Amino acid sequence: MDIDYSVYLVTDQFDFTESEFLNIIEEALKGNTTIVQIREKNSSTRDFLNLAQKVKKLTDKYNVPLIINDRIDIALAVDSAGVHLGQDDMPCKIARKIIGPDKIIGISAENYGDALQAQEDGADYLGIGAIEKTPTKTDCSVISEEDLNKIKKTIKIPHVAIGGVKEHNTREIIDKYGFDGVAIVSAIMKSDLPKEAATNFYNLVNSKLTLDDVYAAIYGVIVGDALGVPYEFKPRSTLQKTPVTGMRGHGTYDKPEGTWSDDSSLTLALADSLVYGIDYDDIMSRFSKWLYQNMYTPENEVFDVGQTTEEAIYNYTMGVNPLDCGGVEEYENGNGSLMRIMPLLLYINRKSIDEKSAIELINNVSSLTHAHKTSKACCNIYNFLVQAIIENREANNLKTLIKKSIERAKKQYPLKEYPEFKSLYDDLFFDSGENLDSTGYVVNALQIAFYACYHSSDYSDAVLCAVNFGEDTDTNAAITGGIAALYYGYKSIPPKWIDVIINKELINEVLDAFSEGLKHY
Predict the structure, then answer these.
(1) Are 234 and 470 in contact (CB under 8 A)?
(2) Which phi and psi (to 5°) does residue 397 adopt?
(3) Catalytically annotated residue among 6, 39, 255, 286
(4) Can you tell me the distance from the alpha carbon of 384 to that of 407, in angstroms, rounded to the nearest whole number?
(5) Is 96 considered catalytic here?
(6) CA 486, CA 217: separation in Å to the nearest integer?
(7) Catalytic: which of 30, 54, 96, 137?
(8) Residue 139 pLDDT grade (very low, low, confident, very high; cuts 50, 70, 90)
(9) pLDDT value at residue 209
(10) Nearest to 470, CA basis, from 248, 223, 265, 241
(11) Please, are residues 162 and 128 in contact by the beta-carbon 8 Å criterion?
(12) Catalytic site residue 39?
């Protein structure tokens, strides 16, 4: 039997009426609960059986397996998917003789020895814990980190974390110890919104985005930006004669080595806002503080501000609704929303937000400064690649992921309605970069990012290729750098480039808070 252990709901009646209890379970089932265990320590056999029959109707309705805690007789009577046994219950081998080969047997394990023995005895899955102290299992001790690491290395059957699992620590538990899911009691049963609570746990368990990815992608943007700042507005012909090969200072703005610009400032402002979720007013407020108060800057100075972005922020300060502030004209399709969109894409992929909602969110956050359909489409196509990297980087090379993202873009943004993507959609697009334009038009920036990443073997290859196209060097390298670092990893960014980045204290402070916030979503 193929079981998804992502969200393992362990029921508790607490002080609920039966009607309230059953309604909570049904709401949780609507919200991606993947398996349900009925635990009734104090009920009579008759009462337990009656309740189990009612819950079984609900789990059957949503095609979710039902597990009975302790009671093999009840499990057989209602034909549940299986039974869960504790260390003081019937031994697994004997239970298997009674319940048969087709039913699931889960075993509670409080330490590595329990887990290893259960696996050897033929258990189908394990409940490991307690992870932390919990009011619903007061008799359980907290499992040691040493035992958790041993379990991760040697236990091959599915195992779920139980005891003290909350939204804020779920992703850390999954990432650190390799659990297949989390067993939840109070956080769903006592939630005012059990459907949403179950959905949040499911998304947290199944997100393939790690917190290392967050640092990689954002530093990828910032380092790319800083690499390009000294060369902004340099024509391609000049850079072809003397190509950029590394980080340097001064140049166009006469800034020290490692100085980053508006691309990174607005990226950090957006990340800082997303710590607490989506709030368009808060995002625009932080953008305003950057422009008018020099926040989120390397040296307390704003420079290199895009006109469309500046006008949108001004509109906000004049009382315009944030979603109505952005430029809507064709000529206002600069790359100002694409260059700062990465934190939102990380947020969306961490939460495993569905495609329709993701597109709407990206459209809205782009529209804060750039509301034309082309700008919004470019931000979404960029996300197609981000999502492809997060979900499939282990199985596909970057060239394949880029091509798949473009194929997805063709369906979402067909050429008939979006003729501006004709070059990007052409089968020969990657054959030559000679005709690529490197000015600030958003489609050009997207094309350069895809082209540079396609022809790269590491982070350095990608961002240097983007910079050496000339003109809008900082933004092109920032957009390229986010993708390249996400795919190749944080360690692919040359340490000597990171070392010279100015005001890393601010960057790390924002990223630490953003990463902590993502644990809750």
Answers:
(1) yes
(2) -80, 170
(3) 39
(4) 10
(5) no
(6) 5
(7) 137
(8) low
(9) 80
(10) 241
(11) yes
(12) yes
